[in-house]
Amino acid sequence: DVKVTQSSRYLVKRTGEKVFLECVQDMDHENMFWYRQDPGLGLRLIYFSYDVKMKEKGDIPEGYSVSREKKERFSLILESASTNQTSMYLCASSLTGMGSGELFFGEGSRLTVL
Amino acid sequence: AQKITQTQPGMFVQEKEAVTLDCTYDTSDQSYGLFWYKQPSSGEMIFLIYQGSYDEQNATEGRYSLNFQKARKSANLVISASQLGDSAMYFCAMREGNSGYALNFGKGTSLLVTP
């Protein structure tokens, strides 16, 4: 079965802390994505990566960075967390080429910044 | 500009009835893909159905069908014979030809199925 695993379901951090959100997929997918989900705003793309060590900014990259050192792992980093980064973070992966290219999502990481 | 518009924040439908969730999109690409996802209260995102811009037939997957009207740029999801378990958030999404495989999501429609 396809699996995208996010390391933490719930996190509580303080303003100014550095936060790491980890995501691992076991499907050998080339593409990986980080979205944030807020009520009434849907899902907004933060960053994505189509290959190891490659990254592309999405619609809302400010305040975030990413790392992809291995194909299966894509990390989202909040260098200095702020209260407006309180949100649900969703990681996803997809395959290049064959098929529709649908995204497979992890269960999400709910981050609260105090 | 919003690329995916879902105009219905919330919908109600009675069990066993059909319901249509609206989605319009905006793109100048000739090649694109349209997706619908379901997100139950548990939070997982479940892929439902896909329609390619060059597909001539409307996509169907079980009780789900996508009413694709290319000229009107609409991709409505039709759920037939609604079940209580269909209560969830539904998101329409689009992948454009040059987007690098990322999907652009709408704001979602909350569907409540009543007995």
Summarize the structure.
The complex is a heterodimer of chains A (114) and B (115). With 114 residues, chain A is mainly beta. Chain A is built from no helices and 12 strands.
Fold blueprint:
The complex is a heterodimer of chains A (114) and B (115).
Chain A lengths: L3 E3 L3 E4 L5 E3 L1 E3 L5 E8 L3 E8 L6 E2 L7 E6 L2 E6 L8 E8 L9 E2 L3 E5 L1
Parallel strand pairs in A: 2-12
Antiparallel strand pairs in A: 1-4, 3-9, 5-6, 5-10, 6-7, 8-9, 10-11, 10-12
Chain B lengths: L3 E2 L4 E5 L4 E3 L2 E2 L6 E8 L6 E7 L7 E2 L2 E6 L4 E6 L8 E9 L7 E2 L3 E6 L1
Parallel strand pairs in B: 2-12
Antiparallel strand pairs in B: 1-4, 3-9, 5-6, 5-10, 7-8, 8-9, 10-11, 10-12
How would you characterize the overall build of this protein?
The complex is a heterodimer of chains A (114) and B (115). Chain A is mainly β and 114 residues long. Chain A has strands at residues 4-6, 10-13, 19-21, 23-25, 31-38, 42-49, 56-57, 65-70, 73-78, 87-94, 104-105, 109-113. In chain A, strand 8 and strand 9 form a beta hairpin. Chain A is globular and about 45 Å long. Chain A starts with a strand and ends with a strand. Chain B has no helices and 12 strands. In chain B, the strands form 3 sheets. In chain B, strands 2, 5, 6, 10, 11 and 12 form a 6-stranded mixed sheet that branches. A 4-stranded antiparallel sheet of chain B has the order 3-9-8-7, with no helix packed on it. At the A-B interface, strand 5, strand 6, strand 10 and strand 11 of A face strand 6, strand 10 and strand 11 of B.
